[in-house]
Specification:
This protein has 329 residues and is an alpha+beta fold. The chain has two domains: 228 residues, Aminopeptidase, CATH 3.40.630; 81 residues, Elongation Factor Tu (Ef-tu), domain 3 (Beta Barrel), CATH 2.40.30.40. 27% of the residues lie in helices and 27% in strands. The protein is built from nine helices and 17 strands. The strands form three sheets. The chain has an eight-stranded mixed sheet with strand order 1-2-12-3-13-16-14-15, with helices on both faces. It binds cobalt (II) ion and zinc ion. The site of zinc ion has 7 residues, from α5 and β13.
Length: 329
């Protein structure tokens, strides 16, 4: 597997609405593999690989969760609003990095008891002497993301932005491997998923696909005292049945099952009781689009330590290639 390219995608900085750096990396990697590639008004990167048959829209989101600076106080401390889902306990003491390279650390006001922690009690400390010094480095509206180290620990990768650079990676690696597509393919690297599937909504409208297939991380039910879940790390490619945004269409679920069985690809089912993904927007576009999701079971989602198994990533790539080369009957 091309770990170096995955690392390049994961260490790039791009929260919702600020996906430009990610989009540039992807455009460079795929431009010679597709017939046409363009960026739309909301920042979605849309690549068309012409093929026979019906239109299939693939979607993986480029954006990662981040923080937007809302206020700079007299002492030079910054307050922020979350972009996407953060828990205050996870935020505490983390490092964040701005596109300029500036690093801030999350501190907390004095609390009477630990349970009082809330995002409103937290601030970002960039070490500035005072307000004036802080304003030379950062302004209200600037955005930052978790500092992005990338580690390979034997059979797993650990890095903050696997959600959802891993989905983008699976799409790109599948695109490189497809020999004969059964569909007219639109690879969409979407913007603003983490704030409500916004890029998927507009791109699905403009593409008007016959089928939708999204790629994203999902939770893993194998950690100590986890909620019982059917999916786990090392369980293979996960075929989504449902989350809070979509009930996957039986046509797509059956297609993925059949492709996994025929290709002898390890798979499992996914039912996620919270959260959603781009298929949630695609399937309700226009008159409705039969949609599904290939997911990758990940530990520690929306923390700086998102973790996926390399064998699961490889299973997802293999399943994607097979699913795109096999007609839906
Ligand atoms: Co997410
Ligand atoms: Zn995601």
């Amino acid at each position: 597997m091309n770990i170096e390219f995955l690392k390049k995608l994961c260490v790039a900085n791009g929260t919702s609405g600020h996906e430009h750096a990610i989009s540039e990396i992807i455009r460079d990697e795929i431009k010679d593999l597709v017939d046409d590639v363009k960026t739309d008004a909301l920042g979605n990167l849309i690549a068309h690989k012409k093929g026979p048959g019906k239109k299939m829209m693939l979607a993986g989101h480029m954006d990662q969760i981040g923080l937007m600076i809302t206020h700079i106080d007299e002492e030079g401390f910054l307050r922020f609003a979350p972009i996407g889902g953060f828990s205050p306990t996870v935020l505490l003491s983390q490092r964040f990095v701005f596109p300029s390279g500036l690093v801030g650390v999350v501190g907390c006001e004095r609390l009477d008891k630990p349970a009082d922690i809330a995002i409103g009690k937290l601030y970002l400390d960039i070490g500035a002497k005072d307000e004036e010094a802080a304003k030379k480095l950062v302004k209200v509206g600037d955005v930052c993301v978790y500092v992005n180290p990338f580690a390979v620990n034997g059979d797993v990768v650990v890095t903050p932005a696997l959600d959802d650079r891993i989905g983008c990676f699976i799409m790109i690696e599948a695109l490189k491997k497809i020999k004969k597509s059964a569909f007219d393919l639109y690879f969409v690297f979407t913007s603003q998923e983490e704030v409500g599937l916004r890029g998927a909504k507009t791109s699905a409208y403009s593409i008007d696909p016959d089928y939708g297939l999204a790629f994203d991380v999902t939770a893993s039910g194998d950690t100590p005292k986890s909620l019982p879940m059917p999916m786990k790390m090392y369980g293979g490619a996960a075929i989504k049945l449902k989350d809070n945004s979509v009930i996957c269409h039986p046509t797509i679920v059956k297609h993925l099952e059949k492709c996994a069985e025929e290709g002898k690809i390890k798979y499992q089912y996914e039912i996620l009781e919270m959260g959603g993904t781009d298929s949630g927007a695609i399937h309700v576009s226009r008159g409705g689009v039969p949609s599904g999701v290939i997911s990758i079971a990940s530990r520690h989602i929306h923390t700086p330590n998102e973790m996926c198994a390399i064998s699961d990533i490889e299973a997802c790539i293999a399943l994607t290639v097979k699913a795109l080369e096999t007609e839906i009957k």
